[in-house]
């Protein structure tokens, strides 16, 4: 099965949630410098597929599927 492709709406939501978690003191899942911004840490976590969040997508009538961010194709958001 192909990797599900993350939408721009899912990216925006995950970005906001994860950056807020980092600002609130949650430990990053990548090595980082003390003066590195939360935005840069988020981008590196996204590249390394280490973001500990899931996206819930509707799937048919009254059903949904949880997709870990680490299993998604995010190439379009990485420069």
UniProtKB/TrEMBL annotation:
GO terms for biological process: DNA-templated transcription. Keywords: DNA-directed RNA polymerase, Transcription. Coiled coil: none annotated. Gene3D superfamilies: 3.90.940.10. SUPFAM superfamilies: RPB6/omega subunit-like (SSF63562). One of its GO terms (molecular function) is DNA binding. One of its GO terms (cellular component) is DNA-directed RNA polymerase complex. This is DNA-directed RNA polymerase. It comes from viral metagenome.
